[in-house]
């Protein structure tokens, strides 16, 4: 069973008096242990599609299934719970909280669950992404590549089924980007998760198991 | 680390605390408004208390008295010794001073004359404070004279005064500015024995702790002595006068004053909470993307809301605490100057304004945080992430 599946998804926006169709009858699925990369020119609907997969946005038409469950009509609070337990996010600008240490940033998504202590897992994840010696560093004491590794560790803290990456190498140089991609590839297998990424980066396409091209809201 | 470790168990509080630490200058400026607000409320409240205490101690010498004279329907002229005993029984544990009154003229060595009222009583110290000499507990020989009259006539302590054909030595000079009343005429206080040939006392003065006690005792005495007859009229055996009207007026004036002072204080706290609203709104707008990330990684709306509300509450608490500390210093100084006793500030009567100020500060801050918190928590993560 696909961990995430979109069926005939349509997304329309109302901008002024105009209706923009950002996604047109999109079918998409991703399996565990697979890295899918979505490419396409800017304005093609890549981010919208990623937001749908990440349950941050709801479709105008069509259905979204997470692990076989139809989550299309979930309320915002129900979607929040799904994101909390099933999904990890990596952003282009890392989006770490400046006042928290690396470990605390990794723990952040589970911080409000006082019943489970994810501290050990946070430390373990940081060791696995090569930051075992940077546990108590704050984001401004880390390089771009190191920050993205912290972000990746944060995305994995809740043991998600899906990791979504929006231009994860976009703010990194070629070499650092490559190490991040190798990291993701390794984690994909170790954790048996689906990784869905959006990118312009040719290098990234090379690491993908499958590439989906989106133009004008349609999958080619 | 102490406070941070404690807060770790309360994630919203922990995050709120860290967020405040990010921009210390802004946090300090936002709390400064609250500090000023709390100082205004607390110190104006305390000032009200200090003024009231001062006024009560100035005017109290009159309003805590009950004066008893013979009533309209009395069968005797004056107040009898039996009636005095009865008053003592009914009034309980207060000073009851029966007295005769008269008038006389005192002349100085150079022939200058001055009319004075004469009061004959025993417990002089209950009714009279002296500026020089003594006010005896039992006045058996010698007299007291109002100091302004003594000044005018050039009479000093130890000088002889003739009254009713007898010579008395002046033992004390009465402070002339006691209460209001007295009619500006000087008073000569003589031993009871000087007029003991009279049958009944002219009046009885009861001195109580404060105005409220005086009002209470006056009512009890009226009940006791002045029975209502069957045709609805009151049989007035004794005329009992207290100054409850005056006391009431003073109290109501003081309450108005206090409310006015507190009102002025509250305005500054309202201004302070607008400042907090502004700061919280700015800081949530600034952190919009960050809050979007929190929401994206599965932090619930309620958790975001709580975090920002606690941030506002912390601002209020920090400002409130500083404000309370400064107000205590102001209060100490105020009471030292006005009442000569600085520690009165810690009595509940005035200390409660410190508590009110602190609670008001936190309340106002949380109310100010409501809108920014609600706005941040309900921002759609997709849009918040876009920045």
From TrEMBL, chain A:
<dbReference type="InterPro" id="IPR017871">
    <property type="entry name" value="ABC_transporter-like_CS"/>
</dbReference>
<dbReference type="Pfam" id="PF00005">
    <property type="entry name" value="ABC_tran"/>
</dbReference>
<dbReference type="InterPro" id="IPR017911">
    <property type="entry name" value="MacB-like_ATP-bd"/>
</dbReference>
<dbReference type="InterPro" id="IPR003593">
    <property type="entry name" value="AAA+_ATPase"/>
</dbReference>
<protein>
    <submittedName>
        <fullName>ABC transporter ATP-binding protein</fullName>
    </submittedName>
</protein>
<feature type="domain" description="ABC transporter">
    <location>
        <begin position="4"/>
        <end position="220"/>
    </location>
</feature>
<dbReference type="GO" id="GO:0005524">
    <property type="term" value="F:ATP binding"/>
</dbReference>
<dbReference type="InterPro" id="IPR003439">
    <property type="entry name" value="ABC_transporter-like_ATP-bd"/>
</dbReference>
<dbReference type="GO" id="GO:0022857">
    <property type="term" value="F:transmembrane transporter activity"/>
</dbReference>
<keyword id="KW-0067">ATP-binding</keyword>
<keyword id="KW-0547">Nucleotide-binding</keyword>
<keyword id="KW-0813">Transport</keyword>
<dbReference type="InterPro" id="IPR015854">
    <property type="entry name" value="ABC_transpr_LolD-like"/>
</dbReference>
<dbReference type="GO" id="GO:0016887">
    <property type="term" value="F:ATP hydrolysis activity"/>
</dbReference>
<dbReference type="InterPro" id="IPR027417">
    <property type="entry name" value="P-loop_NTPase"/>
</dbReference>
<dbReference type="GO" id="GO:0005886">
    <property type="term" value="C:plasma membrane"/>
</dbReference>
TrEMBL record, chain B:
<feature type="domain" description="MacB-like periplasmic core">
    <location>
        <begin position="27"/>
        <end position="222"/>
    </location>
</feature>
<keyword id="KW-1133">Transmembrane helix</keyword>
<feature type="transmembrane region" description="Helical">
    <location>
        <begin position="304"/>
        <end position="333"/>
    </location>
</feature>
<feature type="transmembrane region" description="Helical">
    <location>
        <begin position="353"/>
        <end position="374"/>
    </location>
</feature>
<comment type="similarity">
    <text>Belongs to the ABC-4 integral membrane protein family.</text>
</comment>
<dbReference type="InterPro" id="IPR003838">
    <property type="entry name" value="ABC3_permease_C"/>
</dbReference>
<feature type="domain" description="ABC3 transporter permease C-terminal">
    <location>
        <begin position="264"/>
        <end position="378"/>
    </location>
</feature>
<keyword id="KW-0472">Membrane</keyword>
<protein>
    <submittedName>
        <fullName>ABC transporter permease</fullName>
    </submittedName>
</protein>
<keyword id="KW-1003">Cell membrane</keyword>
<dbReference type="InterPro" id="IPR025857">
    <property type="entry name" value="MacB_PCD"/>
</dbReference>
<dbReference type="GO" id="GO:0022857">
    <property type="term" value="F:transmembrane transporter activity"/>
</dbReference>
<dbReference type="Pfam" id="PF12704">
    <property type="entry name" value="MacB_PCD"/>
</dbReference>
<dbReference type="GO" id="GO:0005886">
    <property type="term" value="C:plasma membrane"/>
</dbReference>
<keyword id="KW-0812">Transmembrane</keyword>
<dbReference type="Pfam" id="PF02687">
    <property type="entry name" value="FtsX"/>
</dbReference>
<dbReference type="InterPro" id="IPR050250">
    <property type="entry name" value="Macrolide_Exporter_MacB"/>
</dbReference>
<feature type="transmembrane region" description="Helical">
    <location>
        <begin position="28"/>
        <end position="51"/>
    </location>
</feature>
<feature type="transmembrane region" description="Helical">
    <location>
        <begin position="259"/>
        <end position="283"/>
    </location>
</feature>
């Amino acid at each position: 069973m696909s961990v995430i599946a979109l069926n005939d998804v349509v997304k329309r926006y109302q901008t002024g008096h105009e209706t923009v169709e950002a996604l047109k009858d999109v079918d998409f699925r991703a399996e565990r242990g697979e890295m899918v990369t979505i490419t396409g020119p800017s304005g093609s609907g890549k981010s919208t599609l990623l937001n749908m997969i990440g349950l941050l946005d709801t479709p105008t038409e069509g259905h979204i299934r997470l692990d076989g469950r139809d989550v299309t009509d979930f309320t915002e609070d129900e979607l929040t719970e799904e994101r909390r337990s099933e999904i990890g996010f990596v952003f282009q600008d890392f989006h770490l909280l400046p006042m928290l240490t690396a470990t605390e940033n990794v723990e952040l998504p589970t911080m409000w669950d006082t019943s489970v202590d994810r501290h050990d897992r946070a430390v373990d994840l940081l060791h696995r992404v090569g930051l075992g010696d940077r546990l108590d560093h704050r984001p401004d004491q880390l390089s771009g590549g190191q920050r993205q590794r912290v972000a990746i560790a944060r995305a994995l803290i809740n043991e998600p089924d899906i990791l979504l990456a929006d231009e994860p190498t976009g703010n990194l140089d070629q070499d650092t980007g490559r190490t991040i991609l190798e990291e993701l590839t390794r984690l994909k297998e170790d954790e048996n998760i689906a990784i869905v990424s959006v990118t312009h980066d040719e290098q990234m396409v090379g690491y993908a198991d499958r590439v989906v091209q989106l133009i004008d809201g349609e999958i080619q | 680390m102490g406070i941070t470790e404690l807060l770790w168990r309360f994630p919203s509080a922990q995050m709120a605390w860290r967020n405040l630490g990010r921009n210390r200058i802004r946090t300090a400026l936002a709390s400064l408004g609250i500090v000023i607000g709390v100082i205004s409320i607390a110190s104006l409240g305390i000032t009200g208390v200090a003024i009231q205490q001062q006024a009560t101690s100035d005017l109290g010498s009159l309003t805590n008295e009950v004066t008893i004279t013979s009533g309209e329907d009395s069968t005797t002229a004056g107040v009898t010794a039996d009636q005095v005993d009865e008053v003592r029984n009914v009034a309980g544990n207060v000073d009851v001073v029966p007295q005769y009154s008269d008038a006389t003229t005192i002349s100085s060595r150079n022939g200058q004359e001055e009319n004075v009222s004469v009061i004959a009583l025993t417990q002089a110290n209950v009714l009279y404070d002296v500026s020089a000499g003594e006010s005896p507990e039992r006045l058996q020989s010698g007299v007291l004279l109002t100091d302004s009259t003594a000044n005018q006539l050039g009479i000093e302590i130890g000088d002889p005064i003739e009254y009713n054909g007898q010579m008395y030595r002046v033992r004390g000079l009465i402070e002339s500015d006691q209460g209001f009343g007295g009619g500006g005429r000087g008073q000569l206080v003589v031993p009871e024995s000087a007029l003991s040939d009279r049958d009944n006392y002219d009046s009885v003065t009861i001195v109580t702790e404060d105005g409220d006690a005086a009002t209470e005792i006056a009512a009890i005495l009226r009940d006791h002595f002045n029975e209502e007859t069957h045709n609805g009229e009151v049989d007035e055996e004794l005329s009992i006068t207290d100054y409850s009207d005056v006391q009431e007026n003073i109290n109501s004036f003081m309450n108005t004053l206090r409310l006015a002072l507190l009102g002025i204080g509250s305005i500054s706290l309202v201004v302070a909470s607008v400042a907090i609203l502004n700061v919280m709104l700015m800081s949530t707008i600034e952190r919009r993307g960050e809050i979007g990330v929190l929401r994206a990684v599965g932090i619930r709306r309620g958790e975001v809301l709580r975090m920002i509300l606690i941030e506002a509450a912390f601002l209020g608490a920090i400002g409130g605490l500083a404000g309370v500390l400064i107000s205590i210093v102001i209060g100490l100084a105020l009471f030292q100057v006005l009442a000569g006793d600085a520690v009165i500030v810690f009595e509940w009567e005035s200390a409660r304004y410190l508590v009110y100020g602190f609670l008001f500060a936190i309340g106002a801050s949380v109310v100010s945080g409501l809108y920014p918190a609600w706005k941040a928590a309900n921002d759609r993560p997709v849009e918040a992430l876009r920045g």
